[in-house]
From TrEMBL:
PANTHER family: AMINO-ACID-BINDING PROTEIN YXEM-RELATED, MEMBRANE-BOUND LYTIC MUREIN TRANSGLYCOSYLASE F
Signal peptide feature range: 1-26
Gene3D superfamilies noted in UniProt: Periplasmic binding protein-like II
Pfam families for the chain: SBP_bac_3 (PF00497)
Organism from which the protein derives: Labedella populi
Protein name: Amino acid ABC transporter substrate-binding protein
């Protein structure tokens, strides 16, 4: 995938179908009195930074068009808010500093909301959370969490998956590995009954080896990935948070997710987001 760190592509947000790819076009949206209240670099325009090789969340396809889950989410959000969406690509390690100093309005490439990052930028409500997948040999009888009782479950040491397994798989023998590769080798070799991987890693192994995902889980203790915003963009953040709630409620979120994240079950996302949004009803989040 080509990394176009200097390119700019402007999207005509109102013309994009949910199931389609983001295309290149000059937008004619000029904003309104309401959009003028948003703290954007250019009135009426949301300047979004993405990493161009973060598929399925954000990437540039062979036709030099932006596409992906985060691209489509922000296309829909800005369309509903009456903002023109302008997307630029940058290397990942420069994206947050650029937003923090006001060189761009927002960033999105499955970026996790952490305490360390909150020291310089702010975040919207989450739009995605990493799924953890119990992966088993294809012929295994394991189908749900109760089936792990008395089984040897492999995890990567000091990972969130390990913490989750220690908390919830108390009837299992937890076996620790220093890295992902030896964990999978143990599963393939039969020395453990199941391996607990991040969703994307599990999907990779399922596509290449004789294994399957028995079930998936979401760690409710994390904040998930969200839209990165400047710390002083209070009006913009509140408007985006309200729009995210509406998109979850009216089914738009599910449609976008199933279009772009085809290897993961949408239900854990819906459950996580519904619960998280209910726990944080104030759109001033995270400054409640």
């Amino acid at each position: 995938m080509r990394n176009r760190t200097t390119s700019t592509i402007v999207l005509a947000v109102a013309a994009l179908a949910l199931a389609g790819c983001a295309g290149t076009s000059a937008s004619t949206s000029t904003g309104s009195e309401e959009t003028a209240d948003f703290e954007t670099v250019t009135p009426g325009t949301l300047q979004l930074l993405v990493n161009s090789d973060a598929a399925p969340f954000a990437s540039v396809n062979d036709d030099d068009e932006f596409e992906g889950f985060d691209v489509q989410m922000l296309t829909e959000v800005t369309d509903r808010l009456g903002l023109t969406l302008e997307i630029k690509t940058q290397e990942f390690d420069t994206i947050l500093p650029s937003v923090a100093v006001g060189q761009a309005d927002a960033a999105a490439s499955s970026i996790a909301d952490t305490d360390e990052r909150r020291e310089t930028v702010s975040f919207s409500l989450p739009t995605y959370t990493g799924v953890m997948s119990i992966t088993v040999p294809t012929e295994s009888a394991i189908e749900e969490a109760d089936d792990l009782a008395g089984k040897r479950v492999g995890v990567k040491s000091a990972s969130r998956n390990a913490e989750y397994a220690e908390q919830y798989f108390t009837d299992s023998e937890i076996v620790y590995f220093p890295a992902e590769a030896p964990l999978f080798n143990a599963l393939e070799g039969g020395t453990i009954d199941a391996a607990f991987f991040d969703g994307q890693a599990a999907d990779k192994y399922v596509q290449q080896y004789d294994v399957r995902v028995a079930f998936s889980a979401v760690n409710d203790d994390n904040r998930g990935a969200a839209i990165v915003l400047r710390q002083d963009a209070d009006n913009l953040r509140e408007a985006i948070n309200q729009t995210l709630r509406e998109m979850l409620e009216d089914g738009t979120y599910e449609e976008i997710f199933t279009t772009w994240v085809t290897t993961e079950d949408v239900q854990p996302q819906l459950d996580f987001l519904s619960g998280y949004y209910a726990e944080h009803p104030d759109n001033s989040y995270p400054n409640e």
